[in-house]
Amino acid sequence: MEEFDREGMQTKSKSFQKDVHLLKELEGKAPKLFGIPTGTRLDEMFYKVEEVEGKFVRKPLGGIPYRAVLNIVGLPDTGKSVFVEQFATYQAGNDYKVLFVTSESPAEFLYASLKEKAKALGFDFSKVENNVVVIDASQEDMLRENVFSLIKTMEFAIKRYKTTITIIDSITGFYEHREMLARQIVRNVFNCLKRNGQTALLVSQKRSSQGAETAEAAGGLAVAHIVDGTIVFDKKLIETRWDENLYGLPVGEILRTVRIDGCRLTGHDTNTWIMEITEAGLIDIKERLKDFIRRKR
């Protein structure tokens, strides 16, 4: 038995040799650092540092980092779905192939929503509808309950239609009532997206008792620890005279905010920003919260 164990371990260790690399050997595989535009002010909030004439200069990335998998988290009605739908429409309208996995609204409702986004952004919807591939998991138990079925379906769509952008709204829909499996499910989806070279946004619904403004607010730390970064959407209801004095808004108003909680791939603005959802249903990031408060005072 001892000899069998030793031989088995040796055989197993050989299978992991492909996972050991000299750092220099990874040079050709490392993705370039540039931005994928969202069509919002977030494009200015990610940045890289370059050396210019002996000095290090901060330059906007021009979008979310290429091949990043980002977590979009927040309470209901904070603008998460509006943002990812706007991003999907913006990319599709610029002739990039987008995979949109919906576990919340049935696909026909997504169609109607993206049509309105295209109109608001000024894109030809015929171009958008031919560049967005939809996986409707909202009514298919097998896709929601079996992560491997989901991944096989995603990989089929990515390879057949050659998508470069993936949206999942929401990733929480794949582990609702199974919070203990959240880390395993998110890790498998994350690896699939990385393996297939996707730039991706995963929408997470607030589910834990953590504060809404934290990355832990959805799926505990299962999502936040695995993905490349987190963007937190939040809203503040003006309820008291103290709120009125601080924000300069009347009781009953809602103040929406957005913040990049972290990103391991590149530098980013750490401020909280004021955000609005326009009458046309688009995200409009206005100004830093601290500047807003100072101006209101």
Low-pLDDT residue intervals, each spanning 5 or more residues = 6-10
Q: Secondary-structure element sequence?
A: HEHEEEEHEHHEHHEHEEHEEEEH
Oligomeric grouping of the chains = single chain
Strand residue percentage: 25-35%
Major pleated sheet: 9 strands, mixed
The domain count comes to 1
Class by SSE composition: alpha/beta
Count the beta strands.
14
Known CATH architecture: 3-Layer(aba) Sandwich
Going across the biggest sheet, name each strand in turn.
Answer: 7-6-8-9-5-10-11-13-14
Radius of gyration from the alpha-carbon trace, in angstroms: 21 Å
- End-to-end separation: 78 Å
- Fold-level CATH name: Rossmann fold
> In CATH, what is the homologous superfamily?
P-loop containing nucleotide triphosphate hydrolases
Topology:
Layout: H1 2-15, E1 35-36, H2 42-45, E2 46-52, E3 55-60, E4 64-65, E5 69-74, H3 80-93, E6 98-102, H4 107-121, H5 125-131, E7 132-136, H6 141-145, H7 147-161, E8 165-169, H8 182-195, E9 199-205, E10 229-237, H9 241-247, E11 254-263, E12 267-268, E13 272-277, E14 283-288, H10 289-296
